[in-house]
# Entry
Amino acid sequence: MDRTLVWIAAATGFSYVLACAQEPADALEAARSSLGMLAQSLPWIVVSMFLAGLVSQWLEPELVARWLGREAGIAGIVFGAVLGMLGTGSRFAVYPLAVSLLAADASPGAVVAFTTSWQLTSLARLPAEFPFFGVPFALVRFAISLVISVAGGLLFEWLWSAWSHFR
# Structure
């Protein structure tokens, strides 16, 4: 089992014990709320895991490496960000899919650009912003978010490479 998960679980359990000691009704309400979120999220998580497993079998490492690998350089990071902006699914789908891309030899920077763009940009959501913000504001926000995704991928690639030399 992952040590980080064990530490987070222990901290959460300890926090519930403290909350229960101070205000049992609040702790019970927090547990009910958590169970509600779990019930709402669990189907998405399960389906996303099965989808990611299927996608990982379909991805050809040579193709992923060519388009998203380190050899692709900045173009691979930009392509990762563009792929991310096409995403419309649940946030629970993006991480298993991103892990599948990493396993198929996508560069870490391209995967960061992909996941960041998935969260910040979405072509499918963009028209929904127009009536609230207006077209110019929404388009500028979208463009800046895409640039941030690419910049984040580049920065992560640089930091990851530098950090990898010290491990």
User: Anything to note?
Assistant: The two ends are 22 Å apart (CA to CA).
